[in-house]
Amino acid sequence: MFSLLGFKGDVLSRKYDLEEAIKEQSKAIKDKERDLNISSNDKDKTVGQIQLKTQEINKLSTDLDDFNFFIKDQETISTLVEEIENNISELNNKLYRIEFDINKLRKSIRDEFAFDINKVNELFNEVNVLFPAEFLRSYEELSDFNKKITTERNREIKRTLSEKEIEQSEIIKKLQVLNERKVKYTHLIHDTSIFKKYKAYQQDMLKAESELMYLKAKLIAFDFIEERVREISLLKENELKETKVEIETELSNTLSNDKYSAIRSTFSEIIHDILQVPAIISISKNNADNIEFAYSIENSAQQRGYTYNKLLCVAFDLSILINYASQSYFKFVYHDDAFGNEDNRLKIRLMSTIKRLCLKYDIQYIFTAIQDDLPNAKDLILAKDEIVLELNDKDDNGKLFLMSF
Taking a C-beta distance cutoff of 8 angstroms, is the pair 321, 333 a contact? Predict the structure, then answer.
C-alpha cells in the first residue's frame, strides 16, 4: 500500500524485515533461556559451577583409578602386598642389626683409660711388698700410649655411630612409607564392600559428567545469547535506525509525492460526488514507527457509520485504479453489496459516478447486489450487457462460479 501511494515501499519492507529479524533473534534468546532454564545474568555463576563440577569429577576419577586397580588386577595387588611385607621384614631385620650395633658402639666409647695405678700401689703396701719404681715408670708410659689409642678409637667409633644413626633414620622413613602402602592395599583386599563402593562411585561419576555436560551446554547457550544480543543491538543502532530515518524523510515530503497527491485528490473528488462532503486520506507514523492509513470527512456522524466506511473503501479502490489506468496494473475491482442499506439518492450518485469513471478511464467495476437494492432511476437501469449473471438456486447456471462445490 505504501508503494501504491507513490512512496518507497522497499524502505518500509526493509523495516519490517529488520523488525522480523530482531523478533526472531529475541525469540531465539527466550527459547534458549526457557529450554535450559537460564538467565542471561547467570553466566559467571555457571562458570563457577563448571569449575566445582570439574574438581568433583577429578576427585571421583582418582578414587575410581584406585578401585579399578583393585578390580582389574587384584592378584597383582596381593603380590604387591606380599612384596611390601617382605621389604618391611628385611628392613626390620636390618634396623634391628643397626640398632644393636649402635648400642654396642655407644657402650664402647671410653673417655679415659680404666686402670688405676694408685690402687695397685695400695695393694702392694698392704702385703708389705715394695712397688718397683721401674714398673711405675713403664706403666705411666703405657698409660699415656693407651690414652692416645683410646682417643683415636673413640673418634672412629663416633664416626661409625653417626653413619649407623643416619642409616637407621633412612630405614625408619622407608618403613613408614611401606607400612602406609601396606595398610592401603590390605584394606582394599579385605574390604568386602569394594564392589558396591565401586558401583556407587561409577554412578556418581556418570551423574557428575552429565551435570558437567549440561553446565557446558548452558555456557554455550550464554555465548549464543550474547551473540544474538550483539546482533540485535547492531540492527537497532545501524540498519533499523537508518531505515526509520528514511521513512521519516518520506513522510515529511508528502507534498512532493505526485502519485500520492493525485490519488488523494481523486479520492476527495469521488467522495464529494457521492456524499457531497469534503474528505481526505492521510498517512502517519504510529508509536511503533509503522505507517497508519486514515481518512477524515467533514461530517463526524457520517465518519462513524459502517455504511459510509464502505463507500470510502469503494472510493479509495477506484482512486487507485484511476491513477494506475495508464500503467500495467489491474483494470478492475470487485465489491460485494456496495448498494445495500443506502439511501436511494446516494445509490444514484454512486452508480452515476461509477459509470462515468469506468467509461472515462477504461476500467471495470464489478459488484453484486440484490435487485431491490439497485438505485431506482430510469437513466441508471442496467443494460443487458452490463448484467454478467443473475444468481438463483435453480441450477449451476445461476451460481456465481457456474458450479457446485
Answer: yes
> How many residues are given for the chain?
405
Which residue in this structure is represented by grid cell 458450479? 403
Tell whether pTM > 0.70.
no
Residues 6+ apart with CB under 8 A from 134: none
Show pLDDT as tens, one digit a residue, over the chain (405 residues).
888 888 888 888 888 898 898 899 888 888 888 888 888 778 888 889 889 989 988 887 887 776 665 555 555 566 667 788 888 888 888 888 888 888 887 877 755 545 555 655 565 555 545 555 555 555 566 566 567 777 777 778 788 888 888 988 898 998 898 888 777 777 666 655 566 666 777 788 888 888 889 888 888 888 888 888 888 888 888 888 888 888 888 888 888 899 999 999 999 999 999 888 888 999 988 888 888 988 888 765 544 555 678 888 999 999 999 999 999 999 999 998 877 777 788 888 888 899 999 999 999 998 888 877 777 766 666 667 777 778 888 888 888 788 887
CB 298 within 8 A of CB 275: no
3-state secondary structure of 192: coil
CA distance 24 to 37: 19
Contact 189, 77 (CB under 8 A): yes
What are the DSSP E strand ranges found in 178-301?
Answer: 279-285, 291-297
Contact present, 247 and 289 (Cβ < 8 Å): yes
Residue 297 sits at φ, ψ, to 5 deg, of -125, 160
- Give the DSSP H or E segment for 368: strand 364-368
